[in-house]
Amino acid sequence: MGAIAETAPSRTSFDDRVTDLLRRAGRFWRSPSDQPAWARPALLAIAAVAALAYAWGIGNVNLEPFYGSAARSMSESWSNWFFGAVDPWGTVSVDKLPGALWVQALSLRFFGFHLWAIVLPQVIEGTLTVLVLYRVVRRMAGPGAGLIAAAVLAVSPVTVLLNRANISDSLLILLLVLAADATARAIIDGRGRSLVMAGLWVGLAFQTKMLQAWLVLPALYLAYLVASPAASFMRRFRHVVLSGLVVIVVSLSYMTAVTAVPAQDRPYVDGSCDNSIFSQVFLYNGLNRFSGTELSQAGCTKPWSFQTISFEEGLAPQLNAAKVGPGWNRLLTGVFGREDAWVVVPSLAAAGALLLRRRRKDREGAPRTDPVRASALLWTTWLLITGVFFSVGHYLLPYYVAALMPPMAALCGMGFSLAWRRRDRIVTRLVMAGVVVASCAYSLWLLPPSFGVRTAVVVSMVTAAAVTVVLVVRSCLRRPRSSWSVPAVILIGSAALLAGSAWASGTAVATGLGPFDSPYESSAVVYQSQVRPALERNNWPTISNRIANLSPFVSAEAIQGSALAGYLIMATGKEFLPVGGFSGQVPVPTLARFIRYVQEGRVVLVNVAVKPLTNNPDMRWVVAHCTRLNVNGSTYVSLGTRFQQYVCRSYQADGSGPG
Description:
This protein is mainly alpha-helical and 659 residues long. 62% of the residues lie in helices and 4% in strands. The chain has helices at 2-29, 39-55, 65-74, 78-83, 99-111, 115-141, 143-155, 157-162, 169-189, 192-209, 217-227, 233-260, 277-291, 316-321, 334-340, 344-363, 371-392, 405-421, 426-446, 455-477, 485-510, 523-537, 540-546, 562-572, 591-599, 617-625, and strands at residues 557-560, 576-579, 605-611, 627-628, 635-638, 641-647. Strands 1, 2, 3, 4, 5 and 6 form a six-stranded mixed beta sheet that branches. Strand 5 and strand 6 form a beta hairpin. The radius of gyration is 28 Å and the shape is globular.
């Protein structure tokens, strides 16, 4: 009896804990008191669909090998982690700031090396972006607008493709949307600390994609200056200045820390010819990228006819797209258009309607702090500035345009909310019909000729547009105007506007595409970008077993360019000495250090481009002093360049002969 009496309270306590846990789970699914009951369940459903699309098949995706090698090397050493080293020896860094790679490396350190462990952070970041975008749009325009914005972002092809691999833009976009959320909070409460928090998020975004993070600042600060409830303009201006100082301090903090470390105690800074991280960020990833010149700095080896980047054959579709020149329609056609232009018509129409409507209301005495107008101003400015920058810049990869999706999604959500509130007006339904017809026609035009005719895609889009037009006519001719056809116009019209984007995303996920692909690619391109890399990954165990017993102090092979070396580092986790950095042009390792590696027996096998002969001094020294390897596979041709493997033995200090 005593034993029973002692266990009863324990059982009761356990039941109470279970009940409390179930109660908390129920609260998780329930909307807060200031939102409709359907808001949170709908949002969580959208986020679940997004996460499923991003995570589908992540165990067998085509990764960017350069970033993949850095993540693996960074996961094995805290020094490599901090400096963003590409190789296990930590001889050279990535050619960008390593903010996004820090997260990937931590994932590998926790889970071990798996493809899915590299991609998992991007899946989480993309899903969080959907949730945060809902919050910022709901904060300014209501839950209905927030849900539509979240849905548009979740089903956008460029967003789906981006979050299915190891690209830094996933974290960049999350941080920028967080900055927009902090700005929205500042516009509502007028507190400078909220705007300072926005500056902090932008500064952190700088660590992931450098100068691109600053493109949103005019949008954030303009909206705050116009709409903040702070009574004095000078007070609002001081808040902007303080936030801007935070942006600068946080943005430059890591660069300053790296610069303070002696050069001999850290990896060489790739993308610079003077081992300067400021040159890497502001010249190589700034002025050079915008002007279209490659590594235009003194101190590097002159370019040669073979571009090291061509080693990334699996990324061919994206690299070919990078050759598309600047132009006003660059983002509206071809591979760029198929990334995110599916909703460009409704987003621009919504921006125009929102700004026009709120301008008219302002004349009627609406307050300066109108949050809807402020939000429309913020997202429209973000869209225009980033869109213009991408249109006129010389170097652009298709997945870059994912930065345009948050503003377009937000504008679509706000446009839907405006149309729903004014659905009883004939002009609203007429505008909706026009936007649906124009958007569906444009979406059908975006389909590439190689795509062919897929009945389900074409018929669904044409049918949705036709039904919308019929309902508009019916709602305008019949009385009363509050019949079921009035709300049906808005709902079916909105579905029609999302159809093109949803079909493109669905086909991309079904065929296992990633950020280096574009929706509706031909089977030949899919083979090049997905099937072939997957087949090559089958050789990874063989490569790893071949060098399994190699000393960590000996390089398996020295290769010009971090791109090819990175592929092998990612596959094996072993040192493949990258010579010349990503481009093959930067002075790392120096000739003196390379010779010392050979003398010490740390570099024996070297892969050299011999026809045309590379300009890299380390590789030319190998040709002059090492022995050509004459075994099967030691000579091969790739992309018009002949490669030859050499064996280097220990040499005297002056490099004149064997030691």
